[in-house]
Amino acid sequence: MPYLIDGHNLIPKIPGMDLGAIDDESQLIELLQVFCRRKRKQAEVVFDNAPAGQPRARNFGLVIARFARTGQTADDLILAHLQRLGRSARNWTVVSSDHQVQASARGARAHYVSSEAFAQLLLETLGETSAKPAGGEDAAVSSEEIDDWLALFGAEEEDEE
Fold first, then answer.
1. Which of 47, 80, 119, 136 has its CA 20 to 30 A from that of 25?
2. What DSSP string describes 117-151?
3. What are the pLDDT digits (tens) for 120-151?
4. Is 13 in contact with 97 (CB distance < 8 Å)?
5. Helix H or strand E segment including 112
6. Is 30:14 a contact under the CB 8 Å cutoff?
7. Residue 4: in which H helix or E strand, if any?
């Protein structure tokens, strides 16, 4: 299920990110690229205020960034996207804490999640390590296992002497 994300609504919900930063949009896109690769999902992130001289849509692999032109808002783009999707909107998840955007998602029968909840999912996903032991078990060794290994290699005998 792909995500349709209200970018400027999500940015302040992510620790360490700030809407006042010059590269806040690119920082979010980078995080979303990693998230989408790990989750094997696609996302479209929508921002207000298209940069002058830049295309209004840019493809970053699994992430597409869209920028609202002057006179439009990201909310307008999200609503228009949901309308274009028609019945298939129910296969999308809209990410925003804006109540109007959530109402638009409900009206289109799309799923929706708050920016706060998605930020938590994003951080949890980015915090996962891909180097987990086979079987998904922790690499921790119990004290009994340590004692067995010490006994096997004769370490206890050396300590006792």
1. 80
2. HHHHHHHHHHH--S-PPGGG------HHHHHHHHH
3. 999 999 986 433 444 444 446 667 667 666 66
4. yes
5. strand 111-113
6. no
7. strand 3-6
Between helix 24-39 and helix 115-127 the angle, nearest 10°, is 60
- In degrees and rounded to multiples of 5, residue 15 shows phi and psi of -55, 135
SS3 string, 37-97, reads HHHCCCEEEEECCCCCCCCCEEEECCEEEEECCCCCCHHHHHHHHHHHHHHHHHHCEEECC
User: Which tokens in the block code for residue 78?
Assistant: 């999200």
pLDDT tens sequence across 6-53? 999 999 999 999 998 989 999 999 999 999 999 999 999 999 886 666
pTM of the full structure: 0.76
Residue with tokens 């274009």: 84
Among 129, 70, 79, which residue's Cα sits nearest to residue 102? 79
Instruction: State the Cα–Cα distance between residues 28 and 6, nearest whole angstrom.
Output: 11
Q: Rounded to an integer, what distance in angstroms lies between the CA atom of residue 51 and that of residue 46?
A: 13
Spatial separation of the C-alpha atoms in residues 46 and 57, rounded to whole Å? 9
Q: Could you give the CA distance from residue 160 to residue 158 in angstroms, rounded to a whole number?
A: 5
